[in-house]
């Protein structure tokens, strides 16, 4: 018997779900000692594993999830790591932290954390398993490689599939809908905001009788952690945390971030919450009251509410461009912890009537969808980013970029998505190729956050502001930097003379493939050769 598992490793919480073939939905697995129940919508509790790991160098212990208690954060015999997913998605710098006689990078902490969760899952299931893990769209390739090459290898897992989080969320809610329904998933987690518009379609391959086609996506590098940073910066100034001792301030700021997260959750139900941090060395306590009015004013003044509105509008415009107007949407499902914030809910309700909007188990939906994909619910998706090649302009001699795969195209493609002719740039050239780039933020996502969280080697935290130039640098990713040439010219090429015609397609594995015709030799030299994987 094969057990189908969905795994959603989140910045704040991780959820493991199993596919129930009888009920046709994913449900969380109980992992005693690792998970706990957290409130979701009113009257609903959800089973999650806190995404934290603690090392105890004196005893050699490694604790994860609910086994890490709040007291351990301020206990110097433990080194606690949180928000480690942000390192994998490259939103946080990976500064090593001293743990006993060694140093541990946050990437290794993330690998240990997810490996331990998977190991506990395999013990709990005690069957042959098929695992579908989720990955953020904006860092899909690097994140998938990390799961397959590092996490799976560490735990001895031979079979794992990776899908993007936005699509998994759509599949997670698709079981509640009927054939032909168009719906929107609003996924606002700790790390990112992702919105998907999807439709239930016929699919003879799906045991449940229907598949899911994602028709539009939009997103932003904005999440609950971004909100915590904004509020913590405001409160740090109000509390007058010591400015002349960087080490002490960073430790206090790390405490403040955790306290602000607690306050953020409390303010979903209460009008105000007391925020308090204590310096472990001096014993000084800094305390203030954070009201919901102040909290929501900070969201507005720092552009959070406006950015959320822009992403919703972007998703609706993209869906309309694919033939699905806002009026066609029958249901809206809110996912992720930040969806519980009343100000965020009001934004969504301003676009859709309350009866259409559902806040049903927002922390579990992505893992449930991944379990559904593992269980056979069919998935129909499209390319989320623009992909470009870099070449030399024949007129100016300068580098320029040309799009070969536009965002929104469905795959696989039977006809070429682009046909190009390339030539040698010097006499006697043997190896030819193209540099392929992913335009990371130009279509699907808004530009990255202006704030960057940096954890220091002592476990403290500070905020760094990112310049517009740095954001631009992050917007283009050279995918085949280590292998840009894939054509062998025999005999060698002649400078300026057309040599190869290239036909680009996308296969069912979401890979850009190329077939190459040697113009000089009048023969095909490559057929459906994979170049890069797309997302």
TrEMBL record:
* Alphabetized InterPro entries for the sequence: ATPase_NBD (IPR043129), Hsp_70_fam (IPR013126)
Q: Which Pfam families match?
A: HSP70 (PF00012)
Keyword Nucleotide-binding in annotation: yes
Alphabetized UniProt keyword annotations: ATP-binding, Chaperone, Nucleotide-binding
Gene Ontology molecular functions: ATP binding; ATP-dependent protein folding chaperone
The reply to whether Nucleotide-binding figures as a keyword in the UniProt entry is: yes
- Domain of life, per the record? Bacteria
**PANTHER family associated with the record:** HEAT SHOCK PROTEIN 70KDA
Identify its protein family.
Belongs to the heat shock protein 70 family.
Q: What is this protein called?
A: Molecular chaperone DnaK
């Amino acid at each position: 018997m094969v057990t189908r598992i969905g795994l959603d490793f989140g910045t704040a919480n991780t959820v493991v779900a199993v596919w129930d073939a009888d009920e046709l939905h994913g449900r969380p697995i109980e992992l005693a000692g690792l998970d706990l129940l957290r409130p979701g919508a009113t009257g609903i509790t959800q089973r999650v594993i806190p995404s934290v790991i603690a090392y105890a160098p004196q005893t050699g212990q490694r604790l994860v999830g609910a086994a890490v208690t709040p007291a351990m954060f301020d206990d110097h015999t433990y080194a606690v790591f949180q928000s480690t997913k942000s390192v994998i998605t490259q939103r946080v710098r990976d500064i090593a932290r001293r743990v006993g006689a060694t140093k541990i990078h946050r990437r290794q902490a993330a690998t240990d954390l997810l490996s331990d969760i998977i190991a506990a899952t395999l013990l709990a299931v005690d069957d042959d398993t098929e695992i579908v893990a989720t990955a953020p769209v904006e860092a899909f390739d690097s994140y998938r490689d990390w799961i397959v090459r590092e996490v799976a290898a560490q735990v001895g897992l031979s079979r794992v599939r990776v899908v993007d989080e936005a699509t998994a969320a759509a599949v997670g809610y698709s079981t509640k809908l009927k054939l032909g329904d168009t719906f929107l998933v609003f996924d606002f987690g700790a790390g990112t905001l992702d919105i998907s518009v999807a439709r239930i379609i016929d699919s003879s391959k799906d045991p449940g009788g229907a598949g899911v086609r994602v028709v539009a996506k939009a997103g932003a590098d904005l999440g609950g952690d971004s909100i915590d940073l904004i509020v913590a910066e405001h409160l740090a100034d109000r509390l007058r945390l010591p400015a002349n001792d960087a080490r002490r301030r960073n430790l206090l700021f790390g405490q403040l971030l955790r306290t602000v997260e607690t306050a953020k959750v409390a303010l979903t139900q209460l009008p105000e919450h007391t925020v308090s941090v204590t310096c472990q060395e001096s014993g000084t306590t800094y305390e203030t009251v954070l009201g919901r009015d102040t909290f929501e004013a900070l969201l507005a003044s720092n552009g959070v509410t406006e950015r959320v509105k822009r992403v919703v509008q972007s998703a609706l415009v993209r869906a309309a461009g694919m033939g699905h107007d806002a009026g066609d949407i029958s249901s809206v499902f809110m996912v992720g912890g930040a969806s519980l914030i009343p100000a965020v809910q009001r934004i969504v309700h301003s676009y859709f009537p309350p009866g259409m909007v559902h806040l049903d188990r927002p922390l579990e939906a992505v893992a449930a969808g991944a379990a559904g994909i593992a269980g056979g619910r069919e998935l129909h998706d499209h390319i989320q980013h623009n992909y470009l090649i870099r070449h030399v302009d024949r007129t100016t001699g300068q580098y320029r970029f040309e799009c070969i795969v536009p965002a929104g195209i469905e795959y696989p493609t039977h006809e070429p998505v682009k046909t190009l002719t390339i030539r040698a740039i010097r006499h006697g050239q043997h190896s030819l190729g193209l540099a392929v780039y992913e335009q990371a933020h130009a279509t699907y996502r808004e530009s990255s956050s202006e704030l960057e969280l940096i954890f220091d080697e002592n476990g403290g935290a500070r905020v760094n502001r990112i310049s517009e130039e740095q954001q631009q640098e992050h917007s283009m990713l050279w995918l085949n930097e280590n292998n840009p040439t894939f054509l062998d010219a025999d005999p060698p090429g002649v400078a300026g003379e057309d040599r190869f015609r290239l036909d680009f397609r996308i296969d069912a594995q979401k890979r850009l493939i190329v077939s190459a015709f040697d113009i000089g030799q009048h023969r095909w030299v490559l057929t459906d050769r994979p170049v890069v994987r797309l997302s």
